[in-house]
Design a protein that fits this description.
Helix content is 60%, strand content 14%. It is elongated. The chain has 245 residues and is α+β, with helices and mostly antiparallel strands. The longest helix has 28 residues. The strands form two sheets. It has a four-stranded antiparallel sheet with strand order 4-5-3-6, covered by helices on one side. Strands 1-2 form a two-stranded antiparallel sheet. It folds into two domains: 159 residues, no CATH class; 79 residues, 2-Layer Sandwich (Alpha-Beta Plaits). A hairpin with a 5-residue loop joins strand 1 and strand 2.
Length: 245
């Protein structure tokens, strides 16, 4: 096994092919899970970023090989050029910031989405650089950990947030004066109102007056669904939604 890995770490046609295929497969595996969830960056985006990152570090290795043992060696010895392969990977990591920033959007109710997608792209690029450098153990381990983090941990995180005592609700109601009835119900259920942010004070087209409630539920009844159903049963309430970041 060590002999095979050592041969693949050498700079040859087969090692270049293997590194590109590994970068494509590992990045595509991560992107596939994002595509299933209809995220901004999906299967092809992750594959392309992994391939590009792998190419960047292999270009650096190719230039180093050419300048030390290849056709450029005599010129380098005569001129005295210096070479730093880390510049390529550093430029790629810096450049991915523009792509990652494009996947971060601000939605309604002041929610920000796309941070996980952006960090996933960053991790995919670093994994691609490791592929290009021939650090295969790192690629395999990081791919497993990234897939677990993005796919398996998400429902666990969502379940934790739904069981947490803090809850943020977006509520649409008939009139701004109905706020007193809503807050009265919340206090009757022994919940603490930490913050209220009014979004609309009057009806605007098809949209009703609305507000965002940041609550902390009581220890005896921390059920999110119970609080939401109780507010939804009020005649003045037209719509309610839990905001989960």
């Amino acid at each position: 096994m060590n002999g095979i890995l050592q041969s693949l770490r050498e700079f040859s046609f087969m090692s270049v092919l293997f590194r590109l295929l590994l970068a494509t497969a590992s990045s595509g595996l991560i992107g596939y899970g994002r595509t299933k969830r209809s995220k901004t960056a999906g299967f092809r985006t992750y594959m392309l970023t992994g391939i590009g990152a792998s190419m960047s570090i292999m270009i650096a290795l190719y230039e180093y090989e050419m300048m030390t043992n290849g056709a450029w060696a005599d010129t380098v010895a005569e001129v005295g050029l210096k070479f730093d392969a880390s510049r390529f990977s550093a430029a790629v990591i810096g450049g991915i910031g523009f792509l990652a920033a494009g996947s971060i959007i601000s939605t309604s109710h002041h929610q920000v989405k796309g941070l996980t997608t952006a960090t996933g792209l960053f991790a995919s690029v670093c994994m691609g650089i490791a592929c290009g450098a021939g650090f295969y153990e790192c690629v395999i381990l990081s791919c497993i950990l990234i897939v677990i983090t993005l796919n398996i941990m998400q429902p666990l995180e969502l379940r934790y947030k739904r069981r947490h005592r803090n809850i943020t609700l977006f509520v649409e109601f008939n009139d701004i004066n109905d706020m007193e009835e809503i807050t009265g119900l919340i206090r009757n259920k022994n919940a603490e109102i930490q913050e209220i942010e009014i979004e609309r004070t009057a009806a605007e087209g098809d949209e009703y007056p609305s507000a965002i409630f940041n609550l902390r539920l009581c220890r005896e009844n921390p059920s999110h669904s119970d609080m939401m159903s109780s507010i939804a049963e009020l005649e003045c309430v037209y719509g309610i939604e839990e905001l989960i970041s």
